[in-house]
Automatic annotation (TrEMBL):
Signal peptide: none annotated. The lineage of its organism: Bacteria, Pseudomonadati, Candidatus Hydrogenedentota, Candidatus Abyssobacteria. This is Dimethyl sulfoxide reductase subunit A. GO terms for cellular component: outer membrane-bounded periplasmic space. Residues 5-66 form the 4Fe-4S Mo/W bis-MGD-type domain. Coiled coil: none annotated. It comes from the Bacteria. One of its GO terms (molecular function) is electron transfer activity. One of its GO terms (biological process) is anaerobic respiration. Its cofactor is Mo-bis(molybdopterin guanine dinucleotide). Belongs to the prokaryotic molybdopterin-containing oxidoreductase family. Pfam families: Molybdop_Fe4S4, Molybdopterin, Molydop_binding. SMART domains: Molybdop_Fe4S4 (SM00926). Keywords: Iron, Iron-sulfur, Metal-binding, Molybdenum, Oxidoreductase.
Length: 710
């Protein structure tokens, strides 16, 4: 008799920009295949929550031969990847004993919490469990800043006073022109239905222009025009577009007068009254490599096409002075009256419709003893400690749901720092680049092996119930249960006295779920809005009663708050800040590296799945001009070197990237050889561990050399 196949709705909670619905087809307790949302919309504008290749390939991840099945104890040099199997009791006892000893000798902040975004959208399971445990243990040293978009966050808070800056993706259908600037949603998702709505917008007649150093799949799929630009020069082009719009009197004076402050100061800078340098298209062309005529044409089209969406990605902001790119884009949106208007945009995408805040309850927590260091300075904090000006002497690292060691710059220094620790713990599904350094590795469940609720990463008005589809793989346990068992051994009472289902009902108690059982069975609840969410619509419709959350209550093109910071490299109006002496390219490293997000991975996840490798290989994109000068042919193995390290990978010689620039997709798990050279194309083997004065991580300002391997 054939076994019954049960369809179980499961969310996909990873840090890719989407929050999609997966359907696990389960037979005899095994996931046989995975499909996605095939339902009809519940309400107008609510599209299917359809998953990408990575989500649909998840079965290969669940049952991968390298998946961790039981607790491991280090059996070789830290980082060697040599482990032996141990029991859960031995693993938990070992961790608890070391935590207690380290706290007794060095204090609780000697423990660095290096957990990250592996299960970012899970409301209950994930890294929050270890934050709670360490807070109850007496404190911790945490990591601060946002590696992905700190420049955008800074710019949005200073300009708009908020981070919920993005309209519903459905509103792209109301745009007559869409500029996708440094934005590649075909690969990086950026909202479950973004590509769907871009396709519909193009079919509806919207003109779509892509500005990017690469001819990305998004540019190839959606754009009628690709404008190649040098990395780090985006701000100059935006400011030159502002010059054209001002010079030809195409800006919206009424909008600027009513909703903004500081435009006069910005205009003086743009027109050259401040420094005798008019920011003309010719001026920008020398910086950007974009022909002056192309800048003029784009500026005119953007200013005269109503409404138009200037939709930007995070990549141009991950540069030195990257916050200026975002501030300039926001200013252009205001100059054209596109902020708060249907079919327009804000020039910055951080968070969209704040459904999370409306339907989810997140309990507050923390410890007054906590310390923090910048994400990109964690290795220095371990190596130098208080003697180097850091807030604690770190002796232990705890990592849950993250691969921070791999995803931040200068992995050679990371290797050196971790080898100085007294103890390290990791919860994971695989022996990641981070887990390889742990003394104890706990095998964690995936979201297929536990239940949770999820909201959209940024965009959309829905909530997903991710049901438990199968029993835990091997001896895997969920992160909360692991921490609860540790809490008992640490003498912590009341860590988690509530069942999973009670927690999920509490977390969604504001969501107005009429029938909990139906919600679980269906897997989602889609909300119908009276009208699509438009960022800052309320402010534009009634500025007197709904001001912006800035000190002035308006869009701040000039920011007194920034002026008060007295940072010479961060002007109070958007400016192109030319590279300073310390940033001037060393002739030894003549090429600019950018580190794209690709369809083959979500940060460092999915890199080991066969279906994903079939779709896209790990290669360095290099223009034929640069390749020819180095004797490099397509498929040749090359060595990429910077001031901090080197990596080896195949070359992809292509006209889809501009001369002088190369791309290595981020996410490959580094493997250092005896010489300290990465051998698998890990971008962070060559990216430095630095940050700017406003905490931007400028990976896309990295300079490298590329040479053919002998």
């Amino acid at each position: 008799m054939k076994s019954e196949i049960k369809k179980v709705p499961v969310g996909c909670p990873h840090d890719c920009g989407g929050s999609c619905l997966l359907i696990a087809h389960v037979e005899d307790g095994v996931v046989k295949r995975i499909t996605t949302d095939e339902s009809l919309p519940d309400a107008p504008g609510v599209a299917q929550l359809r998953a990408c290749l990575k989500g649909r390939a998840y079965r290969q991840r669940l049952y991968h031969p390298d998946r961790l099945k039981y607790p491991l104890k280090r059996a070789g040099e830290r980082g060697s990847g040599k482990f032996e199997r141990i029991s859960w009791d031995e693993a938990l006892d070992t961790v608890a004993e070391n935590m207690l000893a380290i706290r007794e000798k060095h204090g609780a902040t000697a423990i660095l919490n290096m957990s990250h975004s592996g299960t970012m959208l899970c409301a209950y399971h994930g890294k929050g469990c270890i934050y709670r445990l360490l807070n109850m243990f007496g404190g911790q040293t945490m990591l601060h800043s946002i590696v992905s978009n700190e420049g955008g966050v800074f710019a949005a808070l200073q300009t708009y006073g908020a981070v919920f800056t993005t309209s519903e993706r459905e509103d792209l259908l109301n745009s007559k022109m869409i500029i996708i600037w440094g934005w590649n949603p075909t690969d990086s998702v950026w909202g479950t239905n973004t590509s769907y709505y871009l396709a519909l917008a193009r079919e509806k007649g919207a003109r779509i222009v892509a500005v990017d150093p690469r001819y990305t799949d998004s540019a190839a799929t959606f754009a009628q025009q690709w404008i190649p630009i040098r990395p780090g020069a985006d701000t100059a082009m935006l400011i030159a577009m502002a010059y054209v719009i001002i010079e030809e009197n195409l800006y919206d004076k009424k909008f600027l007068d009513r909703y903004t402050i500081g435009f006069d100061k910005f205009r003086e800078y743009v027109m050259g009254q401040e420094d005798d340098v008019p920011k003309t298209p010719q001026w920008a062309s020398e910086i950007t490599g974009v022909p002056a005529g192309t800048i003029v044409e784009l500026a005119r089209a953007y200013a005269t096409t109503k409404p138009a969406a200037l939709s930007v990605g995070h990549g141009p902001g991950r540069t030195n002075h990257g916050e200026q790119f975002h501030r300039a884009a926001m200013t252009l949106c205001a100059m054209t009256g596109n902020v708060g208007r249907s079919g327009g945009d804000t020039g910055i995408a951080i968070f969209g419709y704040p459904i999370q805040m409306k339907v989810m309850n997140f309990p507050a927590g923390g410890s007054p003893e906590n310390a923090s260091v910048h994400f990109n300075k964690w290795a220095d904090a371990i190596i130098e400690g208080r003697a180097g000006g850091y807030p604690s002497d770190i002796k232990m690292v705890y990592s849950v749901a993250g691969n921070t060691v791999n995803q931040l710059g200068n992995v050679r220094k990371a290797d050196r720092a971790l080898k100085t620790l007294e103890f390290m713990v990791a919860h994971d599904h695989f022996l990641t680049a981070t887990a390889r350094y742990a003394d104890i590795v706990f095998p964690a469940t995936t979201h297929f092996e536990r239940s949770d609720v999820m909201t959209p990463w940024c965009f959309g008005h829905y909530i997903i119930y991710s049901d438990k589809a199968i029993e835990p793989y091997g001896e895997c346990r969920n992160d909360i249960d692991i921490c609860a068992d540790l809490a008992k051994r640490l003498g912590i009472a009341g860590y988690n006295d509530t069942s999973e289902e009670e927690w999920l009902k509490y977390l969604t108690s504001a969501a107005e779920i009429a029938d909990w059982d139906e919600f679980k069975q269906r897997g989602f609840l889609k909300y119908e809005l009276d009208k699509p969410h438009i960022a800052f619509r309320e402010q534009i419709e009634d500025i007197e009663n709904s001001p912006f959350s800035t000190p002035s209550g308006k869009i701040e093109i000039y920011s007194q708050s920034i002026a008060d910071m007295q940072k010479p490299d961060v002007p109070p109006i958007p400016k192109y800040v030319a590279p300073q002496k310390a940033e001037t390219p060393d002739p030894q490293f003549p090429l600019n590296l950018i580190t794209g997000h690709s369809k083959k991975s979500c940060n460092s996840m999915f890199y080991n799945l066969p279906w994903v490798h079939e779709a896209e290989k790990q290669e360095i994109w290099i223009n034929s001009v640069d390749a020819g000068a180095r004797g490099i042919k397509n498929g040749d193995m090359v060595k990429v070197t910077s001031g901090v390290g080197a990596t080896i990978l195949p070359a992809r010689v292509t006209e889809r990237i501009i001369p002088g620039t190369v791309n290595i997709d981020q996410g490959m798990q580094f493997q250092l050889n005896a010489e300290g050279i990465d051998t698998v194309g890990c971008a962070n083997a060559v990216c430095p561990d630095v940050h700017t004065s406003v905490d931007v991580t400028p990976y896309n300002s990295t300079r490298v050399q590329v040479e053919k391997m002998a």
